[in-house]
Amino acid sequence: MKKVSIIIPVYNGEKTIQRCLKSLFEQTYKNMEILIINDGSKDGSDAILKSVKDERVTYIVKENSGAGDTRNYGLERATGDYIMFLDIDDYIEPHCVETLVNAMEKDECDVVVTNYYIESNRTIEFTLPFHEPTTIKETPEILTKVNLAPWNKIYRAYLFKEKGIRFPLGLKYEDAPVVIGALVNAKKIGFVDDYLFHYTIEPTGETFTRNEKIFDIIEICKLIDEIVSPYDYIDKTDLIVKILTYYLKNSRFIKDVDLRERFVKALFQYLDGLNKNWRKSPYLKETNLLKRFVLTHRTLLKMLSKKKRDDKNLT
């Protein structure tokens, strides 16, 4: 039975630790290595985690350095054949690990992706487009169809051990380059048409950064450009448009008017420099006309922010 290493960064997670760990201890798949890394929490997380009694758990305390560096810390210490990532405020279905491992082995995949639930004021099923086991070369559109978070996936460990894939340091939004790097390097990508992960967000839905760190997304896109540029079958403009239009849409939540306008201007400048025809990308053509029109015009975005409209027409 193959070993699965599950890497969990923790920062001030005292309110959700018990639920997350309970979902792991109830797994039908037993050969797991659970690496819990306390990234300098200031709440009661340490006391709770020190009380955990399960031989599969390795608990590590380190100084705060961010989620990406903490996941890298876990990758350096993981000994499993497969790698999974889980955030401390999320949890998984009891058959999650077993189902993903079975899919990995049945189809000889390097990465397997699955659907998930979004937990906020209510539970929403987030369904990804179904695909047979494939590669990015055969099905490059996967890059714009799947979510680019590290959870809701299982990875063969060699992608990190031999390919050297790591989370970039000092930047927010560090997940996307890692997931894209893994998908591009995977010899086969599988899919499980089941809802196995519960992704939790605050009821306000305000997970969007509203300070100068928001500009990190441009540096992240530059890293993604470097990753995918060697592959002529990948439409890098379409991929980056997918990523940045999310931030254009949510720029209306930035209350600091100067910051918001500088951010939107920077995104448009980056996109124009990437490809003058970015507004014609396939990803945008698949969105509704109103959303596409607003997201590709700075003036309309500015008007939307000023009026403080809700997001019914943009989600």
Task: Please render the helix and strand layout as text.
Elements: E1 4-10, H1 17-25, E2 32-39, H2 45-50, E3 57-62, H3 67-77, E4 82-85, E5 91-92, H4 96-107, E6 111-119, E7 123-126, H5 142-145, E8 153-156, H6 158-161, H7 175-185, E9 189-200, H8 216-228, H9 236-250, H10 257-274, H11 282-285, H12 289-295, H13 298-307
Parallel strand pairs: 1-2, 1-4, 2-3, 6-9
Antiparallel strand pairs: 4-8, 5-9, 6-7, 6-8
Helix pairs in contact: 7-8, 8-9, 9-10
Brief sketch in words of this structure:
This protein is an alpha/beta fold and 315 residues long. The chain has helices spanning 17-25, 45-50, 67-77, 96-107, 142-145, 158-161, 175-185, 216-228, 236-250, 257-274, 282-285, 289-295, 298-307, and strands spanning 4-10, 32-39, 57-62, 82-85, 91-92, 111-119, 123-126, 153-156, 189-200. Strands 1, 2, 3, 4, 5, 6, 7, 8 and 9 form a 9-stranded mixed beta sheet that branches.
Keywords:
315 residues; alpha/beta; nine-stranded mixed beta sheet; 39% helix; globular; disordered C terminus
Beta fraction: 15-25%
Enumerate the spans where pLDDT stays under 50 for 5 or more consecutive residues. 309-315
**How many DSSP-defined strands?**
9
Q: Percentage of helical residues?
A: 25-40%
Given helix and strand content, the structural type is alpha/beta
What spatial form do the alpha-carbon principal axes imply? globular
> What is the arithmetic mean of pLDDT?
92
What is the terminal-to-terminal distance? 42 Å
**How many strands, what sense, and barrel or not for the largest sheet?**
9 strands, mixed
CA radius of gyration = 20 Å
What's the helix count? 13
Summarize the helix and strand pattern as letters. Answer: EHEHEHEEHEEHEHHEHHHHHH
